[in-house]
Design goal:
Subcellular location: Cell envelope
Structural class: alpha/beta
Order of helices and strands: HHEEEEHEHEEEEHEHEHEEHH
Mean pLDDT: 92
Family: Belongs to the bacterial solute-binding protein 3 family.
Keywords: Signal
InterPro entries: Iontro_rcpt_C (IPR001320), SBP_3_CS (IPR018313), Solute-binding_3/MltF_N (IPR001638)
Strand order of the largest sheet: 10-9-11-8-12
Bound molecules: arginine
CATH superfamily of the largest domain: Periplasmic binding protein-like II
Number of helices: 9
CATH architecture of the largest domain: 3-Layer(aba) Sandwich
Helix content: 25-40%
Main location: other
Length: about 260
C-alpha cells in the first residue's frame, strides 16, 4: 500500500471512530435524553458504592444536578481511573467524567475542564497513630510509599519523592494502597486530602495524615474538548453556589477539618 493511501486510511479510520463517539454537545445529550457520567467509584466521599451497591457521593450529586438542568436523566458508568482519564471521555464512551479529577495543564491539552468545583490537596496517608513516625519531608528517603496509577498523586510523587530516594509502589486501585498501609507493607500512601477525613469518620483510628500537604489542587468536571457541555456544567455550578445547594452537598458529604 502506498504511503498516501495508508495515510488516507488512517484519517478515515480516525474519523469513523470520532463519528461513532457519544454525545459531546448539549443538543445531542438532550436528544438522547441521558447524560452518561463516567466515574471510578472507589473514592469516598466523592464517588463510592453504598451498602446497596448504588454509586453515590458528592460528585454524583453534582452530576445529577447538571443532568437535571439539562432536562435529562443521569446514567452512571463505572471505570477504573486509568481508563477514565482520559480515554472514556476522548472516545465518547461517556459524556462527562467526575472522579475527584484534578485540573492540570497537561490534562487540559486533551480534555475540557469545567470551572474548579472543589479545592483539594495531595497528602500522605499513614496508619492511625503513625507507628512508623513518618514525617514529610524528613522521612522520605528509603521509605516505601504508594501512589495510585495515573493520578496527580503519582505525578507529584514522581516529581518530588523519587529524587529524594522514596521507593514508590504503584497501585491501580486506591483501596489496595490503603490495605497495604494497614498491613504495614508501605509506610504511606499519597492521596487526596478529603479521603483521609472520610476514612477517619468511617474507620476511626485506622488512618491519618502525616506531615504537611504535598500539593494543593482543584477538581474539575471533565468533558470532550470543545464540548458546550462544559459551559452548561459551569452554569449549574454557579446556580448551585448561589442557591446554597452546593453548600448543602459539602455539608452532606465532606467532613470539614
Ligand atoms: N485527584 C487525583 C487525580 O485527579 C486522584 C483522583 C482519583 N479518583 C478516583 N476516583 N480514584 O489524579
Amino acid at each position: 500500500m502506498g504511503m498516501k493511501r495508508a495515510l488516507l486510511l488512517a484519517v478515515a479510520l480516525a474519523a469513523s471512530v470520532l463519528s461513532a463517539a457519544g454525545a459531546t454537545t448539549v443538543a445531542e445529550v438532550k436528544k438522547k435524553g441521558v447524560l452518561v457520567l463516567g466515574t471510578d467509584p472507589t473514592f469516598a466521599p466523592f464517588e463510592f458504592k453504598d451498602k446497596t451497591g448504588q454509586i453515590t457521593g458528592f460528585d454524583v450529586d453534582i452530576a445529577r444536578a447538571v443532568a437535571k438542568d439539562l432536562g435529562v436523566k443521569l446514567q452512571i458508568q463505572a471505570a477504573g481511573f486509568g481508563a477514565l482519564m482520559p480515554q472514556s471521555v476522548t472516545s465518547g464512551r461517556v459524556d462527562m467524567a467526575m472522579s475527584a479529577i484534578t485540573i492540570t495543564a497537561e490534562r487540559a491539552k486533551v480534555v475540557a475542564f469545567s470551572n474548579p468545583y472543589y479545592r483539594s490537596a495531595q497528602v500522605f496517608i499513614v496508619k492511625g497513630g503513625n507507628p512508623q513516625k513518618f514525617t514529610w519531608p524528613a522521612d522520605v528517603k528509603g521509605a516505601a510509599i504508594g501512589v495510585q496509577a495515573n493520578t496527580t498523586g503519582q505525578y507529584v510523587a514522581d516529581d518530588t519523592l523519587k529524587s529524594r530516594g522514596a521507593a514508590l509502589k504503584v497501585y491501580d486501585d486506591f483501596a489496595a494502597g490503603l490495605a497495604d498501609v494497614q498491613a504495614g507493607r508501605i509506610v504511606a500512601l499519597v492521596g487526596d486530602a478529603p479521603t483521609v477525613t472520610d476514612l477517619q469518620k468511617r474507620l476511626p483510628g485506622q488512618f491519618q495524615q502525616a506531615g504537611k500537604d504535598l500539593a494543593a489542587e482543584d477538581y474539575g468536571m471533565v468533558f470532550a474538548k470543545n464540548s458546550d457541555l462544559a459551559a452548561a456544567a459551569n452554569k449549574t455550578l454557579a446556580r448551585m453556589k448561589a442557591s446554597g445547594e452546593y453548600q448543602k452537598l459539602l455539608d452532606k458529604w465532606i467532613v470539614q477539618k
